[in-house]
Amino acid sequence: MQFLGSTPPYDLTYSDVFMVPSLSDVASRFAVDLTTPDALGTTIPVVVANMPAVAGRRMAETVARRGGITVLPQDIPLDVLETVIDYVKTRHLVYDTPITLSPVHTVGDALGLIHKRAHGAVVIVDDDGHPEGIFTEHDAAGYDRFTQLKNVMSRELVVLEDGT
């Protein structure tokens, strides 16, 4: 941490501090190495604070997958907390949860969600959750935002069973 000006002679609280955003040399969250230097193979756990703008379902899922913990905000209703906790506990331990939409959703719906995951794709699923196609930004070229995904999605899928 760096102070702009002199170091204050008193303790600071959150409201006394402004953290200046800055660029990082880390290209991806997968490139972060949290192993300790003692060669035991343990990692430093990541704890996400209970801030409503930070500690949500996606953050909890991502941090849990990497061995950390998210403290969910205390002002969230209990039924919502239960839903979030159940969601996080049912996510895959290795693979990111894909964004899924039905074939009747529109290109606009997909484009609004596609950047929420690093892989830049939306999986199109039927009513039973089975994949029917995949949609990328490239598939949207030449179509308006109201075109249904069933008309623009790529149907050539490579599907692997879990565990392979």
Question: What can you tell me about this protein's structure?
Answer:
- It is a single chain.
- By secondary structure, this protein is an alpha/beta fold.
- The chain has 2 domains: 27-89, no CATH class; 99-151, CBS-domain (Roll), CATH 3.10.580.10.
- Helices cover 17% and strands 11% of the residues.
- It contains 3 helices and 5 strands; from the N terminus they run βαβαβαββ.
- It has helices spanning 57-65, 78-89, 107-113; strands at residues 47-48, 69-70, 99-101, 121-125, 131-136.
- Strands 3-4-5 form a 3-stranded mixed beta sheet, covered by helices on one side. The protein has a two-stranded parallel sheet with strand order 1-2.
- α1 (57-65) packs parallel to α2 (78-89).
- The longest helix has 12 residues, at 78-89.
Give a brief rundown of this model.
The chain is of the alpha/beta class. 17% of the residues lie in helices and 11% in strands.
- Tell me the span between the first and last alpha carbons: 44 Å
Tell me roughly what share of residues is in helical segments: 10-25%
Report the sheet-strand fraction.
5-15%
Spatial sequence of strands, sheet with the most strands: 3-4-5
Number of beta strands: 5
Q: Label the overall shape.
A: elongated
Number of domains: 2
Which class best fits the helix and strand makeup?
alpha/beta
Q: What is the C-alpha radius of gyration, as a whole number of Å?
A: 21 Å
- Total number of helices: 3
> Which stretches of 5+ consecutive residues score pLDDT under 50?
none
Main sheet: strands, sense, barrel: 3 strands, mixed
Mean pLDDT score, rounded?
Answer: 87
